[in-house]
Specification:
158 residues; alpha+beta; single chain; Alpha-Beta Plaits
Length: 158
C-alpha cells in the first residue's frame, strides 16, 4: 500500500467513524474462512458494515475524527481487529451474541456507543467518554446499568 493509498484509507475510515455513533471493535482471528464469510453475510443482512483493519491505521483514523473521544478504545488495538459500524446501537451486540452460540468468536474488544465506551468482552463493564467507570446513565432504570448487549444489570452502587 502506497502512502497515498494509506492516506485515502485513513481518510475514508475517519469519515465512517465520524458519521456513526455506533462502532464495535472485535477480534475475529482464528475464525475459518467459512465462518468469517458467514459473519460478513449476517452483518450485511443486519445493515452492519464490517471490515478488518490495521490497528495503526485505525488509530490514525480515530485521531482525525473531531468531536469524538475514543479514549480507552486505543488500548484494545492489539492483534487482529475488525470494525463493525451500525446505525442501531445493539444490532452488532445481538449479532455477536447469536454468532457466539456456535463459535467462540468474535470477541468484543470494545465499543463506542453514543459517546459511551465499553471495553472488553464483559457486557457489564463500560467506561464513559473520559475513561471513567460508567455505572449509571440517564436512560437506565434506577439502580441498573445497560451492558453492550442491550441488557440491564444491577449496578454495584445502590
Amino acid at each position: 500500500m502506497t502512502r497515498e493509498e494509506k492516506a485515502q484509507y485513513i481518510s475514508d475510515l475517519a469519515a465512517q467513524l465520524s458519521a456513526s455513533s455506533v462502532v464495535y471493535l472485535t477480534d475475529t482471528a482464528d475464525l475459518t474462512v467459512e465462518a468469517v464469510n458467514t459473519l460478513r453475510r449476517r452483518c450485511f443482512q443486519s445493515n452492519i458494515s464490517m471490515r478488518v483493519v490495521k490497528n495503526a491505521l485505525l488509530e490514525k483514523a480515530m485521531d482525525q475524527v473531531e468531536g469524538k473521544d475514543f479514549g480507552a478504545l486505543r488500548d484494545v488495538l492489539k492483534g487482529s481487529t475488525s470494525v463493525m459500524i451500525s446505525e442501531v446501537a445493539n444490532a452488532p451486540a445481538k449479532l455477536i451474541a447469536d454468532f457466539r452460540k456456535k463459535s467462540p468468536k468474535p470477541l468484543l474488544k470494545g465499543a463506542y456507543i453514543d459517546e459511551a465506551i465499553f471495553i472488553g468482552d464483559d457486557p457489564k463493564v463500560s467506561y464513559g467518554g473520559r475513561g471513567k467507570m460508567n455505572t449509571q446513565t440517564r436512560t437506565d432504570p434506577p439502580n441498573q446499568t445497560q451492558g453492550w448487549q442491550g441488557k440491564y444489570f444491577r449496578s454495584q452502587k445502590s
